[in-house]
Amino acid sequence: MVPFDFTYHQPSSIHEAIQLFQTLQQQGKKPMYYAGGTEIITLSRLHLVFTDAVIDIKQIPECQVLDIQQQQLVLGAGVSLTTIEEANPFPLLTKTASEVADRTARNQITLGGNICGQIFYREAVLPLLLADSEVVIAGKDGVQQRSIHQVFQQHMQLQPGEFLIQVKTEQTYLSLPYAHIKRRKQGEVGYPLVTVAALKKDGQLRVAFSGVCPFPFRSQAVEERLNQQLPVNTRIDEALQHLPRPILDDIEGSAQYRLFVLKHTLFDIITELEGE
Amino acid sequence: MIGKSVIRKEAWDKVTGAAKYTNDYVTPGTLHARLVTSPYAHANIQAIDIEKALSVPGVRAIVTGEGLPLTGEDLLDRPPIAFEKVRYHGEVVAVVVADTLVQAEKAANLVRITYEPLPVVGSPREALKEGAPLIHEQLGSYQKGRGIYPEPNTNIAHRTKIRKGNMEKGWAESDVVVEASFSFSPSDHAAMETRCATAEILPDGYIIIYASSQSPFMIKKLISSYFGEDVGKVIVHTPLVGGAYGGKTPVQLELLAYLASKAVGGRKVSVWNTREDDIITSPVHIGLEATVKLGCTNDGYLKAAEILYLFDGGAYSDKAIDVSRAGAVDCTGPYHIENVWCDSLCVYTNHPYACPFRGFGHGELSFAIERTMDLLAEKLQMDRLELRMKNAICPGHTTPTQVLLNNSNVGNLPKCIERLRELIHWDDWQRIEIDARTVRAKGVSCIWKTSTVDTDASSGAILTFNPNGSINLISGVVEIGTGTKTILAQILAEKMKMDIKDIHVKMEVDTQTTPEHWKTVASRGTFMAGRAVLKAADDAIRQLKEIASIVLRASVEDLEVGYGKVFLRDDPAIYVNIKDIAYGYKYPNGNAIGGQIIGRGNYILRHLTYLDKETGAGKPGPEWTVGAQAVEIEFDKRDYTYKIIRAVSVIDIGKVLNEKAAIGQVMGAMSMGLSWASRETFLFDRYERVLNPQLRTYRLLRFGEHPEYIVEFVETPQIDAPYGARGAGEHGLIGMPSALANALSVAAEVPLNELPLVPELIWRKKKGEHHGSI
Amino acid sequence: MATTQQCEMLLTVNGEAHSVIARPADTLLFVLRNKLRLTGAKPGCLNGDCGACTVLIDGGPIKSCMMLAIETVGKTITTIEGLKHSPIQQAFVEHFAFQCGYCTPGFIMNAHALTEKYPDASDDVIQEWLESNICRCTSYREIEQAVKSVLLKKHRND
Ligand SMILES: Cc1cc2nc3c(=O)[nH]c(=O)nc-3n(C[C@H](O)[C@H](O)[C@H](O)COP(=O)(O)OP(=O)(O)OC[C@H]3O[C@@H](n4cnc5c(N)ncnc54)[C@H](O)[C@@H]3O)c2cc1C
Ligand code: FES
Ligand code: FES
């Protein structure tokens, strides 16, 4: 139950959406882009989100694309995670997506919503960070395409009124060797204790993390350590020294235990991609 | 009919969405309440400002705690709405009533309360420490029931003492002694239907309550006694209940609904828990800290037990006192020990308050006892099942409260153990290394349980006939999912020798027209209500025979009832159809005799007594159901993760009345026990606030995580029960936590004496072992 | 009720068109239960965690507590009330796949969609779908057996 009222808008073009946002803002409202709605609805209940106008971007044709265009995989921000899983254009993304929430929830959760959300796991971003994807963003100055590394720093750095339209990934990344391990506190559904996604490109390992810190990340320092010509355990120990801080210490697990789990998870990831 | 897997009467309603639960009855025009709850676990309430909240359109009233009577079943220690002080995170401080739920929620969010935080008490042991903050300063002045012994100026709500035999002698006879401590925090029942109640006060003073409850008759009595209402004017309706497991025995929201309705001139008000409120505001599953010391001879015969149970009753005692007493009554587990010393305390803490949970204290005590049994076996270097077999409780032994057991009041535990041994191939292996990382291990436990219900608990049944000879069965048992009402129909069909299709079961309880069934708890539904139904059937049969004897011109003694007829025993061709006499018999000339047949019956438990204050001696319950259980796991030695492969129960159920239903009850209980043991607990911060009051973070076992289940029954009839059947709705749960912990302790080679058994706990214990500190 | 902004929306539920007046902020679960009196879909958490509120939107399972009613305009909504004598309902009854029955409408809708979409679903697929719903009464094994019996029958009929 959403304990406040909002108006609902369903623009059918990017332009219309941007216009709507501005008009609503000028009317003194606090508009919000709306995709799967799973986070907006659940956080509203707890008074952790407020809006008085939602702009549902799911009907915008560009947000619904799932296609290869000019050697790039184009994924609309409004595409649900299960749609992506079923089409399976990017196996690592399929694997990562399929471990988020549960299947029924993923029929609603969108790629854009997962990446742009407040709940800090944002697991679907991991493969995109690894594949140097580009994000297509609409704002009042038009549509821009930027590297995900520029825009996603701990979270999506969007200006007010901007929204994510698409994510583009070079086709060459899609079939790279990959590995993905999500470890939970217990059981097979739930937030991660530690999630590690990895791609191997040109013999170099790329890894991205969720659940380790209060934000998902990919770290050059960590990757450098992991790619050294040293025994695996030494590489991992050194990499762990270079994790961003703070390490999460919460109800999913203590910081120390997370590091323990992460160490073995990295070992498994490296072993899995060894020789690829 | 008896033993058959009859499909439950309300089955099709439940698969078509037609089945109605309390919140499905909320009709247009009903007002909605929203609870304002405390963000602190212990604080003085300095001010409540409702002005802004009252100005929200649609708000009708805001009820606060001033001037309300104290409530409680055994000890009246709880204001229905907190007054002057809050004692747990989530405690109700105000109730906002508005036209819509949204308006109520908006207003609730605007109630401003000023608190002065107080030091918190986070565990029973902390609560007992010298100088611990007092949670109830007025403990000495609270009204209390018989046999309740609060200790004023402490945090002890009640203490049950068991003093059996001679401890000195026991220790002297013991060659081997082990002692260990155990603990787990409170957790939740997490029924899928959150608790809900509506109340309406009619102009003529009748109070109409709808409640998702296991105790509709208790609601009626308590509203009457707390608020001075005429008990006959309180009418409680309980439709189908969406899971309860003990969590719907306490009377809580009903009081709020009543108060809210009163505040708005008697209009119908619905109080419906959000999941978050249901998890922490409403009563929870009790926590425990325990120390167990067992002594035995070199050949493994138990001689002495010294047991301390500190139950975490939370902020209010509710039925936690009773749970702590049940823990004392069966404190040793199902073992024959002549010398027993036990103190079982219900301790106040600043945690959500506890109430019964499936197993009623037995899953809890069993964790401590069965772990200790394994430690003892290890020290003795004796087979773990063998040790249990040697000490298994049997007829001729006495229980901790000195009840002498006989062939009827206790089941056959050795037989259960024997069968379990075969089913789990115990003698083949108990721990094997599959590869460098993987170990498989088995853990076992034995269970027993009696039901410590009120000594005067009773149950009634009414049978009315329809013109076609079919019967309406009306019993006060609440259909909480156990299928008891279908089993009652089976019992009746067997007795009347009729088709179960012709028995119509009234699912809803309405306290005005349904005879009382004390509470739908303690696996007692079938026993008590079954006896009542049999008696009502006898009554109906007597009436049928009376009319038939006139019609058939035969003496009552020569008549037999069955197959829709009353017939001559020696010549069944001479008969009268029940349908022709169920509403009286009409002669061809129009004369009539008799009238509608209405059978009535009741049952009251017999010979139960209060326990002696100093020794605990007394008869707490009618019989002991026993069983043996096992869990097999596969453990990863590197990651400390594990998979539950198989779970097995052999329970002496007396007599199987409905096979699939019985297996379902046991498997469901096992699943709940494994879920609790492997993952469920409240996580508190240092201010004793619950950090995981949502199913997102309070995670339950899900589909696909379930192991293989094997359930078998032993049948040692309880002579005074319908067809010999014993209670078994809870027993599947009792031994699961201990069996799982025993298996994991063997696999990980480290004693695991805490719950829940998450990999991080095992990691911590292993680490502590290797490095000497955590 | 002055501040509540209501609007009219046309919903197609179980093959019937309904015009309802509701807030744009109202969830589909709320509208089904409180406006259309279709109380089969159950509230268990209102937070997307339990699956008791599952209904089908254009044939696919959705947690109706996490979707706005207004989002479903123009779509086909199927609730448990719209499922008549389906094999999955029969199988749930025969396999004792419920006790209190509260999780049942949600479980059945999800399982129904699964068996329709993947008549040859593997164990992994069954788990992936059904772990979206919580049952606190049964051991899940009964539910597994019910679902598998329907899949098996479908297989035989192929
Ligand atoms: C049961 C459950 C379990 C969950 N478990 C996990 C988990 O294990 N791992 C995990 O990572 N997450 C998990 N989540 C969180 C979930 O990821 C979020 O609820 C979800 O990602 C939000 O997606 P949505 O499409 O519903 O977004 P919405 O709720 O519609 O939006 C979320 C936020 O993103 C913004 N937004 C949405 N789309 C765009 C866009 N195109 N451009 C700009 N801003 C946009 C919105 O304004 C809003 O602030 C879980 C959620 C549920 C319900
Ligand atoms: S009520 Fe919708 S998922 Fe629980
Ligand atoms: S049958 Fe009760 S929750 Fe599933």
From TrEMBL, chain A:
Keywords, in A-Z order: FAD, Flavoprotein, Oxidoreductase
GO molecular function: FAD binding; oxidoreductase activity
Pfam families reported in the protein's UniProt record: FAD_binding_5
Domain FAD-binding PCMH-type: 1-174
Flavoprotein found in the keyword field: yes
TM regions (residue ranges): none
PANTHER family per the UniProt record, alphabetical: XANTHINE DEHYDROGENASE SUBUNIT C-RELATED
Protein name (record): CO/xanthine dehydrogenase FAD-binding subunit
UniProtKB/TrEMBL annotation, chain B:
UniProt entry tagged with the keyword Oxidoreductase: yes
SMART domains assigned: Ald_Xan_dh_C (SM01008)
GO molecular function, one term: oxidoreductase activity
Keyword hit for Ribonucleoprotein: no
UniProt keywords, alphabetically: Molybdenum, Oxidoreductase
Coiled coil ranges: none
SUPFAM superfamilies referenced in this protein's UniProt entry, alphabetically: CO dehydrogenase molybdoprotein N-domain-like (SSF54665), Molybdenum cofactor-binding domain (SSF56003)
Name of the protein in question: CO/xanthine dehydrogenase Mo-binding subunit
A Pfam family the protein falls into: MoCoBD_2
Span of domain Aldehyde oxidase/xanthine dehydrogenase a/b hammerhead: 16-119
InterPro entries xrefs: Ald_Oxase/Xan_DH_a/b, Ald_Oxase/Xan_DH_a/b_sf, Ald_Oxase/xanthine_DH-like, AldOxase/xan_DH_MoCoBD1, AldOxase/xan_DH_MoCoBD2, AldOxase/xan_DH_Mopterin-bd_sf
PANTHER family found in the cross-reference section: ALDEHYDE OXIDASE 1-RELATED, XANTHINE DEHYDROGENASE
UniProtKB/TrEMBL annotation, chain C:
GO molecular function, one term: anaerobic carbon-monoxide dehydrogenase activity
Keyword terms, alphabetized: 2Fe-2S, Iron, Iron-sulfur, Metal-binding, Oxidoreductase
EC assignment: 1.2.7.4
InterPro entries registered for this protein in UniProt: 2Fe-2S-bd (IPR002888), 2Fe-2S-bd_dom_sf (IPR036884), 2Fe-2S_ferredoxin-like_sf (IPR036010), 2Fe-2S_ferredoxin-type (IPR001041), 2Fe2S_fd_BS (IPR006058), Beta-grasp_dom_sf (IPR012675), Diverse_Oxidoreductases (IPR051452)
CDD domains hit by this protein: fer2 (cd00207)
Record Pfam families: Fer2, Fer2_2
Positions of the 2Fe-2S ferredoxin-type domain: 7-83
Enzyme class: oxidoreductase
Protein name: Carbon-monoxide dehydrogenase small subunit
Organism name: Thermaerobacillus caldiproteolyticus
